């Protein structure tokens, strides 16, 4: 995909690395416009969710917990244990298919609007930078200026705020892993009392600070795996931030006597021999540019022979046949100046583009000023721009949708039929039976209870269909903690004569407050086992 035959040498290097391989720091101009405003509002909502989620609780348990250390996961109130790994894996696969489908249809909208990296970078850290150091030109000047009291003040303030925000993000990140209670406990403790917790927080702060103060767009360009997938996921029908090269090219400054190709309304005045062209769009463009200080004609004087008022029929006829009548792009470069990844979207869809829409806003502003329709850069597909064909339901999308629906159905079935409690009872290997003082016989068992609910469950075990049999716990009866694995041991006692029906197996009923929650079968080694 590209600008129709333009040289593609820009794909040989990335815009943020110079010819010597050194990092070229990007100073993007602050965007302004409707998309930037909407993204700002959405970022407030998403940041509130991100910071608030670990504090939300359902029945005392966190709403979301991703405790990889203790292998304990809670997603929106649903507890997952290591035994549920298959469910977790299917959920993850469903998520990946959803992202693939979403990308095939809507390109990298996720990157520009929802990705935490973009939200923190563009809506938090970059805004702080604009506030402390000013817009792009002021930042560039400050970077090049020698160290002074003013520069030190601004740099200390900015980096101090960056560190502070990184600390907040690090603590939140940790809260997702170990829970808010553990994070608060770590914060209240002296670093000497909890050196590992303290070290983890310091490492997280350092990583986040490094990412947002230094790595920045390099995360999207060189590290993020999702960015790398674009090449295989996008096709000509995917919607992306795209430059309409059909309308914009050949780009060029507005010059008198060279109306834009889109300015011609095809009124045919010229062809009918009328004296002057009634198309006054060029004059309105020039007046608007002059008014807003963007006038290019002042830096590139019009040809001496160019008409300054209306065009004669001869002029227009000549321009009509001119092979290089200019497109709507006035080559002002604003779309490049606002780009946080330092690329020129006019080169075509690129791996570096995170679909942040800054160039759409910048170009729309220019189009407003020169009184041309907005959308020279817009959300569209390659086939939309090149052939005016916009298709969502392509065979590829239908196939992905089918797979996604099947996976969603599988998730519903598996999650719907999932027990809130798993009980595992195993006879201790290597041990036979022991005779009790009353003549009965016992076997020793170990149990493991996985409580996936949000409540503490007091469990009781009893032997069924065997009069005189009983269960004795080693220690107290288990009270399964919510979202945790409870382990212990118990004895099963069978009478000296287990009866004619005994075949070496016992049935155990597990109850919670009198209600059976599990029914287990296990072996029992007894000296009087019947065949
Ligand atoms: S912002 Fe300026 S340079 Fe970029 S596409 Fe629009 S008119 Fe052309
Ligand atoms: S080209 Fe740059 S400014 Fe435009 S959407 Fe892509 S990343 Fe943003």
UniProtKB/TrEMBL annotation:
SUPFAM superfamilies: 4Fe-4S ferredoxins. Keywords: 4Fe-4S, Electron transport, Iron, Iron-sulfur, Membrane, Metal-binding, Transmembrane, Transmembrane helix, Transport. The chain crosses the membrane at residues 41-65, 85-111, 161-179, 194-212, 397-417. Gene3D superfamilies: 3.30.70.20, Immunoglobulins. Residues 320-348 form the 4Fe-4S ferredoxin-type domain. GO terms for cellular component: plasma membrane. One of its GO terms (molecular function) is metal ion binding. It comes from the Bacteria. InterPro entries: 4Fe4S_Fe-S-bd (IPR017896), 4Fe4S_Fe_S_CS (IPR017900), Electron_Trans/Redox (IPR051684), FixG_C (IPR032879), Ig-like_fold (IPR013783). This is 4Fe-4S binding protein. It comes from Neolewinella lacunae.
């Amino acid at each position: 995909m590209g600008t129709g035959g333009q040289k593609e040498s820009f794909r040989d290097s990335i815009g943020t690395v110079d010819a010597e391989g050194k990092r070229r720091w990007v100073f993007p101009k602050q965007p302004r416009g409707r998309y930037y405003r909407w993204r700002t509002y959405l970022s407030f909502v998403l940041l509130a969710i991100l910071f608030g989620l670990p504090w939300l609780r359902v029945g005392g348990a966190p709403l979301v917990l991703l405790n990889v250390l203790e292998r304990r996961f809670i997603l929106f109130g649903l507890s997952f244990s290591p035994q549920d790994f298959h469910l977790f894996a299917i959920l993850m696969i469903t998520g990946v298919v959803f992202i693939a489908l979403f990308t095939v249809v809507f390109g990298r909208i996720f990157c520009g609007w929802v990705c935490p990296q973009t939200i923190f970078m563009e809506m938090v850290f970059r805004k702080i930078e604009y506030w402390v150091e000013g817009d792009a030109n002021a930042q560039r000047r400050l970077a090049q200026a020698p160290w002074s009291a003013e520069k030190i003040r601004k740099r200390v303030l900015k980096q101090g705020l960056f560190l502070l925000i990184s600390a907040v993000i690090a603590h939140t990140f940790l809260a997702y892993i170990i829970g808010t209670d553990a994070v608060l406990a770590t914060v209240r403790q002296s670093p000497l009392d909890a050196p590992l917790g303290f070290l983890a927080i310091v490492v997280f702060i350092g990583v986040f600070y490094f990412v947002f103060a230094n790595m920045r767009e390099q995360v999207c360009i060189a590290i993020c795996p999702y960015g790398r997938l674009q090449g295989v996921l996008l096709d000509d029908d995917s919607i992306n931030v795209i430059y309409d090269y059909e309308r914009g090219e050949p780009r060029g400054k507005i010059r008198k006597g060279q109306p834009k190709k889109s300015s011609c309304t095809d009124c045919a005045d010229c062809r009918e021999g009328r004296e002057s062209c009634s198309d006054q769009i060029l004059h309105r463009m020039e007046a608007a540019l002059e008014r807003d200080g963007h006038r290019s004609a002042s830096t590139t004087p019009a040809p001496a022979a160019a008409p300054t008022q209306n065009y004669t029929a001869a002029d227009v006829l000549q321009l009509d046949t001119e092979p290089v009548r200019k497109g709507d792009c006035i080559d002002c470069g604003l779309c490049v100046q606002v780009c946080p990844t330092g690329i020129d979207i006019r080169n075509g869809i690129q791996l570096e583009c995170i679909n942040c829409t800054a160039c759409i806003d910048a170009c729309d502003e220019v189009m407003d000023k020169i009184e041309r329709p907005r959308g020279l850069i817009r959300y569209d597909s390659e086939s939309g721009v090149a052939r005016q064909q916009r298709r969502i339901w392509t065979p590829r999308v239908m196939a992905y949708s089918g797979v996604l629906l099947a996976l969603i159905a599988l998730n519903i079935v598996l999650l719907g039929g999932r027990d809130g409690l798993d009980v595992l009872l195993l006879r201790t290997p290597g041990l036979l039976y022991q005779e009790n003082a009353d003549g009965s016989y016992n076997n020793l068992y170990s149990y493991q209870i996985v409580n996936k609910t949000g409540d503490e469950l007091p469990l009781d075990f009893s032997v069924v269909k065997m009069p005189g049999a009983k269960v004795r716990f080693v220690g107290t009866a288990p009270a399964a903690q919510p979202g945790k694995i409870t382990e212990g041991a118990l004895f099963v006692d069978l009478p000296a004569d287990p009866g004619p029906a005994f075949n070496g197996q016992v049935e155990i009923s597990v109850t919670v407050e009198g209600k059976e929650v599990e029914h287990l079968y296990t072996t029992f080694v007894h000296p009087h086992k019947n065949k």
